[in-house]
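Still learning folds. Look over my entry:

…
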Amino acid sequence: MNPDLQNLKELQAADREIARLSQEIASLPRRVAVIEAKLADSKGRKEKASAAIKAGDVARRKFETQIQDLQLKISKYRDQMLAVKTNQEYKALTSEVEFAQQHVREAEDKILEGMVAAESLETDLKKAEAELKAETAEIEKEKAEARLRTEIAEKEMAEWKSKRDQVRATITPDTLRHYDRVLKLRGSALAEAADHKCSACQVMLRPQVYNDVRTNEQFIICDSCHRILWYDPARDAQPAKEEAAVPAEAGPTNV
């Protein structure tokens, strides 16, 4: 095989591995970001439950303060009732007491509702905390695996880049320039010739060109996609498909 052609095959294999590893390394930060977002969602549920509990505590203290103020008013009104001299004044103070007592009952109802809600919120908080703890452990494990995979991929890429540089040094400059130009344009610079076609662009090759490619001794370029063509000799070792035998027609039978 033409030395440049063999080296180009090795170069293309190295470039493909480098491209694959580059994509893998680039995808890992995105994977970690998804993991972080998942953890942030769990933290958000816990914080929401905690905030609701705190808000309930603030509301309960507010109603307790309101009840204390109302009870002071009721006590004051009842003291005043002992000193009134007319039924009208007594009825007015009685109305104030009843009005204050109604507000006390409403505040007590609010406190009771808050206590019931608090029980549900405490359950939600414990559930969110348990989920967060479990997810944190799992996510930290996934992040560690992602960091390890990044390190491995970066090490592999460094090895492939070193190999690529070594192979490039063995290829003639003109051939290398053509390879780089087609690689940038097409994504690949070599194509196998098979069944009288360029396997990349599927354009038929002239018989003489195909025969020349099969020797792997010449630097032949596809007229259509400009990839460098090569041939796998293993194809010649494949047994040809046997044609199905056509049964002969029976002749006339002599009587």
